[in-house]
Amino acid sequence: MTPFTSHRGIAAPLLRDNIDTDTIIPSREMRTVSRSGLADGLFAPWRYTDADARAPRPDFVLNQAHYESASILLTGLNFGCGSSREHAVWAMMEWGIKVVIAPSFATIFRNNAMRNGLLTIELESDRIEWLANWVSTDPRVNQLAVDLEACTILSEAGREKDGFQIDPMARLMLIDGLDEIGLTEQSLKLIEDFEHRDQSRRPWVYLNDSH
Amino acid sequence: MTLFDKLWQEHEVVALSERQSLLYVDRIFLHERTGSVALNGLLENGRAVRRQQHAFCTMDHIVDTRPGRNDDTLMPSGRDFIVATRSAARETGIQLFDIQDPDQGIVHVISPELGIALPGLSLICPDSHTCTLGGLGALAWGVGSTEAEHALATSTLRVTRPQTMRVRFVGKMAKHVTAKDLILYTIRSLSASGGAGYAIEFAGPAILALPVESRLTLCNMATELSAFTGLIAPDEQVIDYCRGRQFAPKGSAWEAAIRHWQTLQSDADALFDSELQIDIDSLKPQLTWGTSPQHCIDWDGEIPRAGEAPDEATAVAWQQAQAYMGVTAGHRLSDYPLDAAFIGSCTNSRLSDLREVADYLTQTGHRVAQGVKALCVPGSGGVKRAAEAEGIDAIFRQAGFEWREPGCSMCFFAGGESLGEGVRVASTTNRNFQGRQGLGVRTHLGSPASVAASACAGHLLADMTS
Predict the structure, then answer these.
(1) Within-domain flag for B148
(2) Cβ–Cβ of B413/A180 closer than 8 Å?
(3) What residues 151-210 of chain B have any CB closer than 8 A to a CB of chain A?
(4) Looking at the whole model, is its pTM more than 0.95?
(5) How far apart are CA B293 and CA B321, in angstroms?
């Protein structure tokens, strides 16, 4: 996984609550057994007037010229609710999103994001509205600078600073770009010890080849 | 200690930090859409499934449900998922319930049916509705494909501990009110994000009275509250349900398991981070009008007006949802003619759901209204066979329903099948998101009985007395 330490970029406001993963990437857009080829289907229900012809809907934020190279998304509460499809994270990252800022995230989405190096930041909704107002006055100039080491978001050319909190383990995973499976494999002995204890406690859990 | 605390403690391999632990995963279930990605990832990284006997896979999300099906689907690339999953399952040595397997079906229908999910087990699946199995008292939750890969490789997951909530249902459900209405009403009360960060235990006298399949329906939609999971303490009913199932323990192992399961309940003095009580004496059948499961009203209620919204953002969301759904504030759902009805999904495709509809059809003698396309997709091969043995398929067919092969089907236009733009469908599924059942499809969620009554009336309705 690519390490994430800091990022500066254009922020696009999409201030709706409960944006679900079916909207982020509809089932019909998940065409291959792969983590790629998904950017085209990102937000397809809102992005196109005709999904087949890919005719862009001009009023959708990511279709507007100012935001076409946006890399930060400002959005509403419970972002990423619904289906567990990790394709939502892969589609966003492939399109170019690196940071999502919302008052809250659905748990599975947040977990998926962290494991792919997409930073999710929880911020109070009035601050998100303030940032959305500020960036939208001149999106290409009014960029946000996110620093994961310092846990800050800088705006207003550094005059405004929003601090954020993030799970220390998630922060470490992102900054070091750790392979979580590789990390856990180092605890193999602990897992084997657990199984040894557990097999005498809950023997029925351990299925063997007789099934 | 709460039931959740006990399950957490029982599965904790090691605490990684104050809030995060490495939890042991007893069972992993995959399906061909997200599981195929997990298996491929595992193989590409040169890893193996650590405990093959604890991992299973089914074909449900993409597979066609029309009679006479094979690997082909309406979606041109659907076959690729099916073929890739079959090949990866073979290569990794895990058991696959393939298309022609008599036990094939929707993952959350077959895992309890086969005794793969059991009380107290930890079970994960790259699917958000894995919380269904909390209905048996399992610690079951949905993950992404990468986490599933982690579980396959290590038999564990790194999990951030959620807080605990208890929702107690008091009172008695009226006739024609079902577990589906109970959970829709709970989402309506708590909101679609009201369970965020919580493992929710459903409790109270009304829960004890619920049959096991209804408990699965109730816990299935905990994810629509954005909860980590939902769960119900296992009781004698659950033990009876599990007895003799294919993968359930036998003999002395069964006796030991029962003794253990009987300890799986919240202690009398257990402290929850949040507690809520819901009185269900006057609960009516619930139907959704909008594009979130929280957009829910009594079947005979009025569609809410933006002016009544608690805040501006909600008012805007209501207006957007009403525009998409083609409904008007102040109107009733019975004002809208129906184009289709769907009975199926991991929420409501079990034998008791199909019986509920068959009873309604038999007692009223009603048939599906002209112009309404009505589908029934049993949740598994087992459900389908049992229903056919009781003659339920004939009742459905005679009333005008199509009778399909098991799978997720129209819950999210699996395999590329859809109803068409602007089509209004009454559905026993779990999500009414914009476009969930196909581009422009307008979904109204309700119980199997409500959907059947609506299909026969030709408009949305949940008054089973008429």
Answers:
(1) yes
(2) no
(3) 153-156, 158, 160, 162, 192-193, 196-197
(4) yes
(5) 11
Contacts of residue B279, defined as CB under 8 A and 6 or more positions apart, other chains included, come to B170, B171
Helices assigned H by DSSP within chain A:
21-24, 44-47, 87-95, 107-114, 125-137, 168-176, 180-185, 188-201
Strand order in the sheet with B156-160: B12-15, B20-24, B156-160
- What fold, for A6-178? Aconitase; domain 4 (3.20.19)
Which residues on chain B are in Cβ contact (under 8 Å) with A86?
34, 37, 126, 144-146
Provide the token pair at B436.
């969930």
**Tokens representing B406?**
């098991």
Q: Of B157, B187, B215, which one is at a domain's C-terminal end?
A: B157
- The total of other beta-carbon atoms located within 10 Å of residue B24's CB is 21
Domain boundaries, chain A: 6-178
pLDDT of chain B, 466 residues: tens digit per residue: 999 999 999 999 999 998 999 999 999 999 999 999 999 999 999 999 999 999 999 999 999 999 999 999 998 899 999 999 999 999 999 999 999 999 999 999 999 999 999 999 999 999 999 999 999 999 999 999 999 999 999 999 999 999 999 999 999 999 889 999 999 999 999 999 999 999 999 999 999 999 999 999 999 999 999 999 999 999 999 999 999 999 999 999 999 999 999 999 999 999 999 999 999 999 999 999 999 999 999 999 999 999 999 999 999 999 999 999 999 999 999 999 999 999 999 999 999 999 999 999 999 999 999 999 999 999 999 999 999 999 999 999 999 999 999 999 999 988 888 899 999 999 999 999 999 999 999 999 999 999 999 999 999 986 666 5
The alpha helices in B130-203, defined as continuous H runs, are 145-154, 179-190
Q: Which of B133, B157, B181 is the last residue of a domain?
A: B157
A107 CB near a chain B CB, below 8 Å? yes
**In angstroms, rounded to a whole number, what is the distance separating the alpha carbons of residues B380 and B391?**
16
Task: Please report residues of A whose CB lies closer than 8 A to that of B414.
Answer: 27
Residue with tokens 């029309």: B66
Helices and strands in chain A, H and E counts: 8, 10
**Cα separation, B122 vs B39, whole angstroms:** 20
Strands A55-56 and A160-163: unpaired
The boundaries of the domain holding residue B444 are 301-457
Number of domains, chain B: 2
**Closest Cα in chain B to A30:** B33
CB-based contact, B313 to chain A, within 8 Å: yes
Is B195 part of a structural domain of the chain? no
- Across the range A147-164, mean pLDDT stands at 94
> To probe the interface with B, which of A46, A205, A208 has the most B CB atoms within 10 Å?
A205
CA-closest candidate to residue B308, choices B335, B334, B330, B327: B330
Distance (Å) of CA A66 to CA A60, A141, A145: 12, 10, 17
**For testing contact with chain B, the best of A21, A36, A108, A210 (most B CBs within 10 A):** A108
The tokens describing B222, both together, are 């905990």
The confidence score (pLDDT) of residue B464 equals: 66
Q: Do A82 and B433 touch (CB under 8 A)?
A: yes
Closest listed residue to residue B430, CA positions, set B138, B199, B224, B174? B224
CATH number of domain containing B146:
3.30.499.10
